[in-house]
Amino acid sequence: MSFWFIQSLNSLALGGVLFTLAAGFSLIFGLMRIANLSHGAYFMFGAYIGLNVLDRGHGFTLAVLAAGLGVGLLGAIVERVVLRRLAGNSLSQVLATLGVAFVIADSSLWFWGGDPRPVSPPELLSGGVQMFGLTFPLYRLAVLVFSALIAIGLWLLLDKTRLGVMIRASVDDRQMAQGIGVPASRLFTIVFCLGTALAGIGGVIAAPILSVYPGLDADMLPLALVVVILGGLGSLAGAFVGSFVIGFIYSFGQVLFPDLAYIILFLPMVVILAVRPRGLFGRIDA
Amino acid sequence: MKAALYAALLGALLSLPWWCGGVYYINLASQILIAAMFAMSLNLLVGYAGLTSLGHAGYLGLSAYASGWLMVNLGWGHFAAAAAALCGATVMAALFGLIALRATGISFLMITLALGQILWGIAYRWTSVTGGDNGISGLTRPSPFGLDLGNADTFYFFTLTVFLLVWRLVAIWVRSPFGASIRGTKDQPRRMSTLGYNVWLVRWITFVVSGFLGAVAGLMYVYYHQFISPHSLSLANSAEMLLMVIAGGAGTLSGPVVGAALVVLLKNVASVYIDRWVMLLGFVFIFIVMFVPGGIVAGVGRLLRSRSLGRALSGEPAAATGAERAGKAP
Amino acid sequence: MSAIVEVSGLCKSFGGLQITRSVDLSVQQGERHLLIGPNGAGKTTLFNLIAGDLAPSSGSITLMGHKVTHLSTAARAQLGLARTFQIVTLFGRDNLLHNVKLALLGKSRLRWRQWGAFDHEQALSRRALEVLGSVGLSEKAYLPLEQTSYGEKRRLEIAMALAQNPRVLLLDEPLAGLSSEERETITALLGTINKDITILMIEHDMEIALAFADRITLLHDGAVILAGTRREVVDDPRTREIYLGH
Question: CB under 8 Å to A201, separation ≥6 — which residues?
Fold first, then answer.
């Protein structure tokens, strides 16, 4: 019985992490039609930045901030220097992000070495919480809460702010939006920045759960893709629902059917792409 | 001019063991040829059919694991195991093609990525069959006609023979009427339908042939390394293959070979001098995607065709106009 | 005599929008049939439905006696249908000869052959040169497409359609964007097309189109407003109304 509860919390925490990862990807794809194959790399880079901050004895909050800013800045540079030059050529942009993934991954290896680095949760959030006679790891609860806050924040951004309105309009109908004066290129940079920053933040948050190691990027990217395809490209609600569905499938799958875990994860993605390319909530065909 | 170049290259390849400087380099050449075969097989999809796949390493895995497993667990001989592996991989390619070709563009990319991940996941998790992370080791090289392929020179010539055969077959195939139809479906699929071509079928056949040749390369791979592990099927590996094709020049015969040489040499030779060869590869790739989309082959071709260079080489005064320098688009 | 193109009750909707409303169309063999209507009337959509690029929501299409409503574009092409597009869709990386050769190849069993250099197919090349000659482009056969003018590209499109040896030819605005000189050339070319081939054409240049047409169908808002001989349609007051406003 306790197994189910604990695993459920783990699933929710993982879902939360996946949401920060997938939300960024979905935003970038929805607005710019770029399948950002370096998204996992930004996640990992953010984790490493956070690790760096923690190593120097600073707090977790600073680590999260540093990761968000650092990765966001990196994303802005990539968008302006590389992706903008390839505007209009989707395939080239995707290929370029592939190259960027290689560069970022190797940079991480260079700066921080090849040893896997486990990360302890911040003291305030370590330890357990007693509920229903069970002890739940406090950190995982915190991750869940944090990602929910991010989800709310994103929703507010998209729904209530002018920036959000512009983003949504451009996702729905890019040409129309440009026609009414939405500044496309500035918007692209902002969204790419935001998307990658979210990935970076996700990396730090996830570090106490997944730890940080070379290859984390290649492990996370396919998960982001599965979530986004399931939930529907360009839909934040879809990314939200999809993240938790996948969180559950992955967590329980790992434990109950370790041999088939990957198949369980990717087969639905294949089926959806083949049968209903819009996913659960999507507005754009993949 | 082109014929002379190819003749010279062939001569160099045939005489390689005598000039390249040792077993290490002979083995490197074998690795390049094997990588080139992978890249050529992927190029059929990416460069000729216009379908970018990120799951091609899956065919490497299918044939390598299949032949390895059959030999180790059922005691099959090399030939029988190879035949079975090729059959199995081709059937899987046929099946995957049915699924993946329901989409195009980015969706196709993602389906192939997902299918590749499924295969990787099976190799990684189905420990009882695949050995999990440890893979299957202790595999042996075949002895065709009694030759000892344990010898680097002999293995090299064996690989070269297979490579030249694959090269020739691919060259014939892409130049055939069917090959012309493949290229047509890349440029103008809608027009091709209107002209009476069954675009789906053309693509599916290309998909299957591409998988088959990838499986052939997979056999060569496992014979060379005598070992197979899940890493060989990873997304990173599929991405590397795609890099080879694009960097060398998609849609050309020699492009994938050049790209394969680039990546293998960077990985093995440059890595001795430059620690960060992966980063270098990444930057080179980004550069090519941004400024030389036709790949190295196209870039070199343009350079050679540019009047000013041609004049410089022959000693004439340079006076090329902008139009002349523009040349033909890749 | 039964019609070579028979469209019956054809409807097409996208989402909630009805693009084609219960269209009936009947074209006799050898006829030159003109499809007119203001922009947005659904003419190109109708072409796409007849050609097989779109599946109808309801209704039926019969071509050359065969029920083709659910047949693919390629299958309809094999039956003898050819078309040109409103926007030039040619093989930009190749020369004119190669473009025509591909068109010829599409109807030939040769297209499944996996060996033998396509570039050296002498019979096909000769035939392609003939086709190019019939549209006055044989001297440009070996030029890359990017070195030809827009008018020449339009001529090439028609050449490719003719290369398919069609029984029914769908021409989508063959004169669009052409200079008056080029229009003359193409109009003359269209006049030389064999009477065996049935032509269904969308065109906005009224002067030329009307001179060309035997029968006309007027489309508006996705529905057939009227159909008849050239005289009948031109004289009908509804035609003026639709084109010049109420």
Answer: A20, A46, A64, A67, A68, A71, A150
Q: A92: which chain B residues are within 8 Å (Cβ-Cβ)?
A: 289-290, 293
Per the DSSP assignment, residues forming a β-bridge with B266 are none
Contact B191 C78 (CB under 8 A): no
Whether there are 3 or more C-beta pairs closer than 8 Å between C and A is: no
User: In the numeric block, which tokens belong to residue A126?
Assistant: 């370590």
Indicate if the alpha-carbon torsion angle A147, A152, A158, A161 is positive or negative.
negative
A254 in contact with B at a CB cutoff of 8 Å?
no
Residues 6 or more apart from B84 whose CB is under 8 A from it?
Answer: B66, B67, B70, B76
Chain C neighbors of B199, CB-CB under 8 A: 74
Residue B262 tokens read as 């680039």
pLDDT at residue C159, as a whole number: 94
pLDDT tens digit sequence for A12-67: 999 999 999 999 999 998 888 889 999 999 999 999 999 999 999 888 999 999 99
Are C91 and B184 a contacting pair at CB < 8 A? yes
Supply B284's token pair. 């080179």
Q: Could you tell me the pTM of the whole model?
A: 0.90
* Domains and their CATH numbers in chain C: 1-80+166-246 (3.40.50.300), 92-165 (no CATH)
Give the domain ranges of chain A.
2-117+129-275
* B251 close contact with C: CB closer than 8 A: no
Check whether B321 has a pLDDT greater than 50: no
Count of alpha carbons within 13 Å of A255, Cβ hemisphere only?
Answer: 12
**Cβ-based contacts under 8 A for chains A and B:** 128
pLDDT in tens, A156-178: 998 888 888 888 887 777 777 77
Q: What is the CATH number of domain A2-117+129-275?
A: 1.10.3470
Contact at CB, B194 and C77, closer than 8 angstroms: yes
Are the beta carbons of B282 and A99 separated by less than 8 Å?
yes
DSSP string, B184-195: HHHH-HHHHHHT
Give B116: exposed, middle or buried? Use CB within 10 Å, 0-12, 13-18, 19+: buried
What ipTM was assigned to the predicted interfaces of this complex? Answer: 0.92
Torsion (CA) C161, C167, C171, C174 in degrees, nearest 10: 50
> Of A91, A222, A275, which has the smallest distance from its Cβ to B235's Cβ?
A222
